[in-house]
Specification:
The chain has helices spanning 57-64, 91-103, 110-113, 142-146, and strands spanning 2-7, 10-13, 25-29, 34-38, 44-49, 75-85, 125-132, 153-161, 164-167, 181-192. It is elongated. The chain contains four helices and ten strands; from the N terminus they run βββββαβααβαβββ. A hairpin with a 4-residue loop joins strand 3 and strand 4 (34-38). Helix content is 16%, strand content 36%. It folds into two domains: 2-49, no CATH class; 68-192, Tubulin/FtsZ, C-terminal domain (60s Ribosomal Protein L30, Chain: A), CATH 3.30.1330.20. The strands form three sheets. Strands 6, 7, 8, 9 and 10 form a five-stranded mixed β-sheet that branches. It has a three-stranded mixed β-sheet with strand order 2-1-5, with no helix packed on it. With 193 residues, it is α+β, with helices and mostly antiparallel strands. It comes from Brassica oleracea var. oleracea.
């Protein structure tokens, strides 16, 4: 059995899959959804698949240069998190939750114990990159977001297009909702010295 996938005008042919006993059903998964197709009479399955391509490396490098992370510190760790504000439509709250999520399951004793020769606890630096829906950038309170970090010098905060606005499925006026919107923010926290 051969599987062909049509991808944005191109054809990607997967290697032959040879089965001694054909299954009664074949499950095909893509980034969009899964399909269960009766396979007894099918030798070839063609499905449209959405493919998202990343830009070339030069474009990616241009996006990062001057932003976060940058060369003002020696990078040791990258902590990632996600935060939601389901009620009240407060993007700052979602960003604060994302930052808490990024740092709350990590411990970095190297700075306290002198594990990095010549580097003291006071030299810890942080760079923060927030993925926030573009229409909400202006609503962010960066001072509140920075208050989440208990130590380390915050040398840079970058806000880029990202995150998500979706429906929470319910409007609860008692919780400050103006609509059903749920705000989702992603963060990468770069830790170094």
């Amino acid at each position: 059995m051969s599987l062909s996938l049509i991808t944005a005008g191109s054809i990607l042919i997967c290697p032959d899959l040879r089965l001694r006993q054909p299954p009664s059903y074949l499950t095909i998964s893509s980034s969009l959804s899964s399909f269960i197709v009766p396979s007894s009479n099918h030798r070839k399955i063609t499905l449209p698949v959405k493919v998202t391509a990343r830009g070339d490396m030069e474009t990616a490098a241009e996006t990062i240069s001057g932003g976060v992370p940058n060369n003002t510190m020696k990078l040791l760790f990258v902590e990632m998190g996600v935060g939601y504000d389901q009620h009240g439509q407060d993007v700052t709250s979602a960003a604060m939750k994302a930052c808490k999520n990024a740092i709350s399951s990590n411990s970095i004793p190297a700075f306290r114990r002198g594990s990095i020769p010549g580097v003291s606890f006071g030299e810890m630096k942080l760079q923060i990159k927030l993925g926030v829906p573009r229409s909400l950038h202006h609503q962010l309170d960066l001072d509140k977001i920075k208050s989440i970090f208990p130590y380390g010098e915050i040398v840079n905060v970058e806000v880029v297009d990202g995150g998500l606005i979706c429906s929470s499925g319910v409007l609860v006026e008692e919780m400050g909702d103006k609509n059903e919107d749920c705000y989702i923010v992603n963060v990468a926290v770069y830790v170094g010295y």
